[in-house]
Design brief:
Elements lengths: L2 E10 L4 E3 H5 L6 H8 L3 E3 L7 H16 L8 E5 L10 H9 L5 E5 L5 H14 L5 E8 L10 H4 L5 E10 L4 E9 L7 E3 L9 H6 L5 E3 L1 H22 L9 E4 L4 H11 L10 H4 L6 H11 L8 E8 L3 E8 L13
This protein binds oxa(dethia)-CoA (UT7).
Oxa(dethia)-CoA binds next to helix 2, helix 6 and helix 8.
Length: 338
C-alpha cells in the first residue's frame, strides 16, 4: 500500500503586526472583547511587498529544505488559496516559476479556510494512486486585502500568512491514513466575497464593487463550525481504525479559541493535546493548519508514530479532516536539498 508521508514543512508570515490595541483605534472594539470572544491578541498583515505568492515561496523553500529536496524533485504543486495574486495564471504556476520546479505540474485549489486540508487530501490521492512521488502542498492567503477595516465583525479576526508541506511516497504505514471532505453550499450566504468574479455581469456593478470585501454572518459560521469540527475529527479517527483516545495532537483551523475548545470538549482532549497559535496570528485561512504543522514540528511536538488530526472549516460552507501518522519511514531520499 502506497502512503503519503509529510517529510518537509515551512511557514512564512508578514512582519507587520496589527494588535488589538491598534484595532481599538480603528473600529469600536476592545482588546477585552476580542480576547474573550475569539482568543486573538494580534495578527500579521501583508505589507505592500507581501503577496500570497511571496509568502508561498518563502514557506515552500523552507519545506523543501527540511525534506532535503531540490525544486526539480517536485512532481506536482498544489496551492490552496482564495486570494491568488491574480485571476490567472494560478499562484501555483507562478510559484513553480519562482522555485524553478521545472518538472512539476501546478494548480490552485479554492476551498477557503478548508483549503489546505482539501489540498493535502487531493495531493495524497496522486501519491496513493502511484501517479506522483513528491508533491508540494501550500496553504496561503492574504485575506486582509479583502477585509473591510470598518467592519468590526470581520476585521478583528483575520491575518495573512503561508504554510507548506512536502508529501512523499512511502510503503510504510505513515502519513495520511484517512480523509474526509465536506461541503454544504446552502451556507454559502454566511461567508463570501462578492464583486470579484465573473458573476458580476453589469459593468457599473463591477466598477462600484471594484474593491471586494468579505461579508460574514459570524454566529451562523460559529454554530456550523462547532458541529463539523468535532464530527469530522471523529470520522477520520474511526476511518483509520482508531479511537479518540489514540489522538496525540489535534491541529485545528485557527478561527476562534471558543470553537477549538468546543471541539476539544467533544473529543475529550486536554488543552496540551491541541495546537493553538491564533493568539499571535489570528485566522490565516488556508495557511492556518500548515503554519501550525511547521510550528509544532519546529517545537519538537510532532514525533514519529504520533496520531495527528488536522481539521478545518470555512466558506462554502466547507470542511475537511485528515488523520496523519507522523513519520517518514520508508521514504526514499532522492534529492540533495537546495
Ligand atoms: O474561517 C472561518 C471564518 N469565520 C469564522 O470562524 C467566524 C466564526 N464566528 C465567530 O468566531 C464569532 O461568531 C465572532 C467572533 C465573529 C462573533 O462572536 P459572537 O459571540 O458570535 O458575537 P455576535 O456576532 O453574536 O455579536 C455579539 C455582540 C454584538 O453586539 P449586540 O448586537 O449584542 O449589541 C456585536 O455587534 O458583539 C458585537 N461585536 C463586537 N463588539 C466589539 C461584534 N464584533 C465586535 C467587535 N468588538 N469586534
Amino acid at each position: 500500500m502506497r502512503n503519503a508521508a509529510i517529510t518537509g514543512w515551512g511557514m512564512a508570515l508578514p512582519e507587520q503586526v496589527l494588535t488589538n490595541a491598534d484595532l481599538e483605534r480603528m473600529v469600536e472594539t476592545s482588546d477585552e472583547w476580542i480576547v474573550a470572544r475569539t482568543g486573538i491578541r494580534e495578527r500579521r498583515i501583508a505589507a505592500s511587498s507581501d503577496t500570497t505568492l511571496s509568502l508561498s515561496l518563502a514557506a515552500s523553500r523552507q519545506a523543501l529544505q527540511v525534506a532535503g529536496l531540490a525544486p526539480a524533485d517536485v512532481d506536482l504543486i498544489v496551492v490552496a488559496t482564495v486570494t491568488p495574486d491574480m485571476f490567472m495564471p494560478s499562484t501555483a504556476s507562478l510559484l513553480q516559476r519562482e522555485l524553478g520546479a521545472e518538472r512539476a505540474g501546478a494548480f490552485d485549489l479554492a476551498a477557503a479556510c478548508s483549503g489546505f486540508v482539501y489540498a493535502l487530501n487531493v495531493a495524497a490521492q496522486f501519491i496513493r494512486a502511484g501517479t506522483y512521488d513528491t508533491v508540494l502542498v501550500v496553504g496561503a492567503d492574504t485575506l486582509t486585502r479583502m477585509i473591510d477595516f470598518t467592519d468590526r465583525g470581520t476585521c478583528v479576526l483575520f491575518g495573512d500568512g503561508a504554510g507548506a508541506v512536502v508529501l512523499q511516497a512511502t510503503e510504510a504505514p505513515v502519513g495520511i491514513l484517512s480523509t474526509l471532505l465536506g461541503s454544504d453550499g446552502r451556507g454559502a450566504c454566511h461567508l463570501f466575497v462578492d464583486g470579484w468574479g465573473t458573476g458580476i455581469v453589469d459593468d457599473e456593478d463591477r466598477t462600484a464593487l471594484r474593491r471586494p470585501y468579505m461579508k460574514m454572518v459570524g454566529s451562523e459560521v460559529f454554530r456550523f463550525s462547532v458541529r463539523v469540527m468535532g464530527e469530522a475529527a471523529e470520522a477520520v479517527v474511526k476511518q483509520a481504525g482508531l479511537t479518540l483516545a489514540d489522538i496525540d495532537l489535534l491541529i485545528p483551523h485557527q478561527a476562534n479559541i471558543r470553537i477549538i475548545d468546543a471541539a476539544a470538549k467533544r473529543l475529550d482532549l486536554p488543552r496540551e493535546r491541541i495546537w493553538a497559535n491564533l493568539d499571535r496570528y489570528g485566522n490565516t485561512s488556508a495557511a492556518s493548519v500548515p503554519i501550525c504543522i511547521a510550528e509544532a514540528a519546529a517545537a519538537g511536538a510532532l514525533r514519529p508514530g504520533m496520531n495527528v488530526v488536522l481539521v478545518a472549516f470555512g466558506a462554502g460552507l466547507s470542511w475537511g479532516a485528515t488523520l496523519v501518522r507522523w513519520g517518514t519511514d520508508g521514504v526514499e531520499r532522492r534529492g540533495g536539498g537546495e
